[in-house]
Design brief:
The structure holds four protein chains of four kinds. By secondary structure, chain A is of the alpha+beta class. Chain A is 38% helix and 19% strand. Chain A has a five-stranded antiparallel sheet with strand order 1-5-4-3-2. The N and C termini of chain A lie far apart (57 Å). By secondary structure, chain B is mainly α. Chain B has one domain (3-214): Fumarate Reductase Cytochrome B subunit, CATH 1.20.950. The N and C termini of chain B lie far apart (55 Å). Chain D is α/β, with parallel strands linked by helices. Chain D has three domains: 11-139, Fumarate Reductase Iron-sulfur Protein, Chain B, domain 2, CATH 1.10.1060; 153-298, no CATH class; 303-433, 3-Layer(aba) Sandwich (Rossmann fold), CATH 3.40.50. Helices cover 50% and strands 6% of the residues of chain D. Chain D is built from 21 helices and eight strands. In chain D, strand 7 (389-392), helix 20 and strand 8 (414-416) form a beta-alpha-beta unit. The chains are: A alpha+beta, B mainly alpha, C alpha/beta, D alpha/beta. Chains in contact: A-C, B-C, B-D, C-D. Chains B and D meet through helix 2, helix 4, helix 7 and helix 10 of B and helix 2, helix 8 and helix 16 of D.
């Protein structure tokens, strides 16, 4: 007896309407994003606060996204962060402009941003965690010295 | 019963009823007045001068060569906003569907973006027409409440329609309701003002043209 | 499953092995989904970690559990586990293991313990017919349960068009005399999250937005969050260029429909419907009604069920009972009115002629000897 | 005969009279016309009074505003509302007095406005109907009223030194042309404008000569000599009927088949297009203008014309004959036959400007200054053609141009088409044609 879940469901991505790409030049949207990023970068340069541009909420077709990525290029640093899914961050060819991409456990893209900062916030270890981790390390060291002793016991116990 | 359902339901029914009643009333009121018989001998046969009347009906749509110098701009202005109105009302898809739901048949329309451009143009022409009526000494002297109110009522429909498509000022449903209410107002005012000329223009030209042609006179 | 409700969110997350960075990622994704300004992501993360875990009571009345299905189907961000960590869902008769008196006492305890501070989520319309007998739980009518629960609520979030505007139970003839929550509780801050059901992310997004900011989001006149209900489907529809170019599908399977043209002529109510379907889409951004080829039926608007056929184009006259505005009806109306006008016209002409006669032969002054 | 004074009416009586006049004129057709006006003001652009003065009050449709007020308040669909709420004011005596200048001094009833109205309204006819109300209100200009009264009583618009019958016979003798008088049984009954008897005897002689040449059985009738109809000018419909009846009775009496209207514009309109309606039944004879008749004779080959010695000429189509009357081809056919080098006016044929003297305006003293301003429009146009001679086929036009010639010392004098025909009859039995004008 065929079951409900046996019915093959095949999900097709909907026909994305590709906005007419202007010959050679970047699409209108991409230029806008770049100029906004430039503005934020200039503010950061003369002492302003770091800033973020949320790419997912902007109407961008796959071709625009590729064009933006191509325009920004890639810098020296690329970080992968494993926290409830993989996130990759890399500094683009433009110093201070980071491309941040968050994916969840299933690998779906859940957020994509441009971060204008000297150092992405999420990579930073929070001050309160330092205290607890310092204590954890101290404990480890302590455990380590006893383990050293125990290690011999352990070794011997085996 | 929110505003949109009213404007499109009961409101529209009342407006159509008053419109039909008003038009029939106004036309019969003068058609049934005295008709004087002509005893003089016509110069042409009745067939010939009836055709003469039809010719006048078309011919009078364009100024004669001798007059075009003086009436050209005025008539061109009048024509263009009329054409603009017809284009917007008859070729905008939602309007076609609206009329289709009233009369049962629909026809292909123009793209909505084109209609928006036309209606903005028509809006400016409307203002130009009012400017002319107020500044032209002859028109200013002739104009009365009916001229200005009929202009206002038609203009209101155009403005509210544009506001509705531009979704500006209020939620779309309210704007659409206001637009249809202004149409209801137009339908209600129609038979009691100069808008009746829409019904009069062709028969008037035909009858007067025929009477002139009957004498072989110029028309 | 009583949670130790005095733990703040941060400690709770750590207990479940959710690191700070994962939580920042979650908040960033939520802010992006809520179309809130991106800088709010990190701010939300820090604020939430210190926030007290709000108690949430989820009461279901005359409803089909479609909204709750939607609530728990929320895909982005991975909500199911996190929401239950961020928020302490103290009562939900669908999810909770307890039932009967145990469930009721849990509810009473939750309400008493967090009096004035808990979030009351209501799902379903409130029937007042037959003294509220149409919907009772444990012998108490929906109306009484709602009134009692509302007393201690900090905010009421009405999930679904039923609780927001009465929805389908409220539709004509409304046998149970169902009412939306706002018609019964007037004195509490209230957010309507309409939709039948609402988009999952809209429910969780609104809840999170309230939990993190502690205030009501910007609401429109129908008290719906503008973040999600600020624009019409029509304004955000990817098929809008076809509407502007005048390319319309004439039937559900014609060339136009297959090419994904605008469904305006097939009764799409996108232009008069405010919701986030066209942007957030459904099933994790897979699609939404129009994208699947069916017109929007305006399920997030009040009285959407009574606005006539779902397939009558928006612009048709009457937009009311199907067949009521058929051309035949228009013709009859016009003819009857014209006849009436005709009669008045004959009267006018008669009156006109009579006055003419009086003017031609004025009584009183002797006729001049012409 | 003594002068009949225009009745001095009290304002109330004037309004009552006007309303009586308007009421008689309100009918389905005039009502439809007044309903159709959309106040676009285009008719002003056709009127030579507005063109010459740019004064908005001369807008043709404005001239019938009282008629519209009367109609809207009395017989329109919303008449009760108009009266109740005063949407349209009642016609007042002062307004009527003020409108006399618009309806008489500044309107020749030439019908040019009726050609331009985009709604097709026959404005000229509405004006003619409005004149009737002014007459009933005792506001017809004195000159027209007196002549109409006199003509209704005596058959002549004003007393003459000698009876027109004798003057006519004298012209016959002077120009040695037979002037059949009071023949009992003829095909064609003739009549002449009294203007020709007094000012242009050559035109009378020309008519007689042409008739003689064509060997027509025709006659003048001493009781129906005068072609003009001052009742038409003054707006007195009853007097217009009585004046026309004189000609009708005489034509019936001499069993005429054709009543020939001489070169006179309004006489043609009054007889050809309005007499039967006033008479109440179809006329038992045809009414032809002499130009029309000569055109037919030319086509039939009975009238043969030689080349005229006239240099270049231009032709003024009388409004009542051409634009309103429908006598279209005849004049040009005649001129072509006479090899006249015709230079058409810029506005010619059915669209020609009026000479400014028609509709009785020529006789109104107070209208003179305004008339001279408007006739300039015409004179400029005629000079622009560069033609040496101006020809026309209406004695009122002729008198207007003569009057303008005297006033402006213009270099041209109007030449009658009929006289030109009479001077160029081919193979006329009298080789020495009569004295040239």
């Amino acid at each position: 007896m065929s079951r409900l879940r046996d019915i093959p469901i095949h999900v097709e991505p909907s026909a994305q309407i590709e906005p007419p790409a202007r010959a050679g030049g970047l699409g209108g949207g991409v230029t806008a994003i770049l100029s906004e990023a430039a503005g934020l970068l200039e503010k950061l340069a003369d002492g302003g606060k770091p800033a973020l541009i949320d790419l997912r909420s902007l109407p961008m077709s796959p071709r625009d996204r590729a064009a933006l990525q191509g325009a920004l290029g890639e810098g020296e640093v690329r970080v992968t962060l494993n926290a409830d899914g993989i996130s990759t961050l890399y500094e683009t060819a433009i110093a201070g402009l980071w491309w941040v991409e968050h994916r969840n456990g299933q690998g779906d893209l859940i957020a994509e941003l441009l971060e204008i900062t000297r150092f992405p916030l999420i990579l930073d270890s929070a001050p309160d965690e330092i205290a607890t981790s310092a204590a954890a390390l101290r404990a480890l060291v302590h455990a380590g010295s006893t383990a050293h002793m125990a290690g011999e016991e352990h070794a011997t116990r085996q | 019963m929110d505003l949109l359902s009213f404007s499109r339901g009961l409101g529209l029914k009342v407006a159509i009823a008053i419109f039909c009643m008003g038009v029939a009333w106004r036309i019969l009121a003068f058609v049934l007045l005295k008709i004087r018989r002509d005893f003089n001998k016509p110069r042409e046969s009745i067939l010939k001068y009836s055709i003469g009347g039809l010719i006048t009906t078309m011919a009078r749509s364009w100024p004669h060569r001798e007059f075009i110098g003086r009436t050209g701009p005025g008539e061109a202005l009048g024509y263009s906003y009329h054409l603009g109105l017809f284009a917007v009302v008859l070729l905008f898809t939602p309007h076609i569907l609206f009329l289709g739901s009233l009369f049962g048949f629909t026809w292909p329309g123009l793209p909505s973006s084109v209609i928006t451009i036309i209606s903005v143009l028509t809006l400016t022409l409307f203002l130009a027409v009012l400017f002319r009526r107020v500044t032209n000494p002859v028109m200013r002297m002739l104009s009365n409440f009916d001229d200005y109110f009929s202009w206002f009522v038609t203009m209101l429909v155009l403005v509210t329609g544009l506001a509705a498509t531009a979704h500006v000022g209020a939620p779309y449903e309210t704007l659409l309701a206001i637009h249809i209410l202004s149409v209801d107002l137009l339908l209600i005012w129609f038979p009691f003002g100069k808008l009746m000329h829409a019904f009069y223009i062709m028969p008037s030209r035909a009858i007067n043209g025929a009477l002139l042609a009957r004498k072989g006179a110029t028309s | 499953m009583p949670h130790d409700s005095d733990l703040n969110v941060g400690e709770m997350l750590r207990r479940h092995g959710v690191g700070r960075r994962a939580f920042i990622k979650f908040c960033t994704a939520t802010v992006s989904a809520l179309a809130l300004p991106p800088w709010m992501g990190p701010a939300m993360a820090d604020q939430l970690r210190e926030a007290r875990r709000p108690s949430v009571i989820y009461l279901s009345f005359q409803e089909c559990t479609g909204c709750f299905e939607s609530f728990t189907r929320s895909f982005a961000p991975t909500i199911e586990n996190l929401i239950f960590n961020v928020v302490s869902l103290d009562y939900d008769d669908t999810l909770m293991a307890a039932s009967g008196d145990a469930a009721e006492s849990a509810l009473a305890q939750a309400m008493q313990q967090n009096f004035g501070k808990y979030v009351l989520i209501v799902d379903g319309s409130i029937p007042t017919g037959a003294g509220g007998a149409c919907c009772t739980a444990g012998g108490r009518s929906a109306v009484d349960s709602l009134r009692e629960a509302a007393k201690g609520a900090a905010v009421i979030i009405c999930v679904g068009t039923c609780s927001a505007f009465g929805g389908i139970p409220f539709a004509n003839p409304n046998p149970t005399e169902a009412w939306p929550v706002s018609a019964i509780i007037g004195d509490k801050p209230l957010i309507n999250v309409s939709g039948c059901p609402p988009v999952p992310e809209v429910i969780t997004g609104t809840l999170l937005q309230y939990v993190t900011t502690g205030r009501l989001p910007d609401l429109d006149e129908q008290r719906r969050p503008k973040a999600f209900f600020g624009n019409t489907i029509h304004d955000r529809c990817y098929r809008r260029p076809f509407y502007d170019e005048g390319k319309f599908a004439k039937s559900f399977d014609d060339e136009g429909a297959r090419n994904g043209w605008c469904l305006y002529e097939l009764g799409c109510k996108g232009p008069t419907t405010y919701n986030a379907c066209a942007t957030l889409k459904w099933n994790g951004g897979t699609s939404f009604p129009i994208e699947s080829g069916h017109g929007c039926i305006s399920c997030s608007e009040p009285g959407f069920w009574d606005k006539g056929s779902l397939y009558a184009p928006l612009a048709t006259a009457e937009w009311g009972k199907a067949g009521d505005n058929s051309p035949v009806r228009t013709l009859e109306l016009g003819a009857a009115a014209a006849a009436a006008g005709g009669v008045i016209g004959v009267g006018s002409a008669g009156l006109g002629r009579w006055r003419q006669h009086r003017r031609e032969h004025p009584i009183g002054n002797p006729p001049e000897d012409e | 005969m003594n002068d009949v004074l225009v009745p001095a009416l009290t304002p109330a009586a004037r309004v009552a009279g006007a309303m009586k006049g308007f009421a008689q004129e309100i009918g389905a057709l005039s009502a439809f016309r007044m309903e159709s006006c959309i106040h676009c003001g285009i008719c002003a652009e056709a009127c030579h009074y507005y063109i010459a003065t740019e004064d908005p009050q001369y807008t043709p449709i404005w001239k019938i505003e009282p008629f519209k007020q009367a109609y809207k308040r009395e017989a329109s669909a919303l008449a009760p509302l108009y009266r109740l709420f005063g949407f349209k004011r009642e016609v007042t005596a002062d307004q009527l007095t003020q409108w006399q200048h618009l309806l008489f001094d500044s309107c020749n009833m030439c019908g040019r406005c009726s050609l331009i109205c985009p709604m097709g309204i026959d404005v000229a006819e509405l004006i003619e109907q409005s004149r009737h109300a002014m007459f009933e209100a005792g506001l017809a200009p004195k000159e027209l009223y007196d002549k109409a009264a006199h003509q209704q009583l005596t058959g002549q618009p004003e007393a003459s030194a000698e009876p027109y019958r004798d003057q006519l016979l004298a012209i016959g003798l002077k120009f040695d042309v037979p002037v059949p008088m009071d023949q009992p049984d003829v095909d064609i009954m003739l009549c002449v404008p009294r203007t020709d008897i007094e000012h242009y005897p050559t035109a009378v002689a020309a008519l007689a000569r042409v008739m003689q040449y064509l060997r027509c059985s025709c006659t003048f009738r001493s009781d129906g000599l005068v072609a003009e109809n001052y009742g038409y000018y003054a707006g007195g419909k009853d007097w217009q009927r009585d004046i026309s009846l004189r000609l009708i009775d005489q034509a019936i009496e001499c069993h005429a088949k054709i009543l020939l209207i001489p070169e006179c514009g309004h006489a043609y309109t009054a007889l050809r297009w309005e007499a039967a309606d006033l008479y109440g039944r179809a006329l038992p004879f045809k009414v032809l203008s002499v130009t029309e008749f000569l055109g037919e004779e030319l086509k039939a080959g009975r009238l043969k014309l030689g080349p005229s010695t006239l240099g270049t000429a231009t032709f003024q189509d009388p409004c009542e004959l051409r634009r309103k009357g429908g006598v279209n081809e005849a004049p040009r056919a005649l001129m072509k036959a006479m090899k006249v080098d015709l230079r058409e006016l810029e506005n010619h044929g059915g669209f020609s400007f009026c000479c400014g003297g028609g509709g009785g305006v020529l006789d109104i003293e107070q209208a003179k200054p305004l008339r001279y301003r408007t006739v300039e429009v015409k004179l400029r146009e005629i000079d622009a053609t560069g033609a040496q001679t101006l020809m026309t086929s209406c004695s009122d036009c002729r008198r207007t141009f003569d009057d303008a010639q005297a006033h402006f010392s213009w270099d041209k004098r109007p030449q009658s088409l009929l006289e030109l025909v009479a001077d160029n009859l081919l193979g006329s039995n009298r080789s020495d044609s009569g004295a040239t004008p």
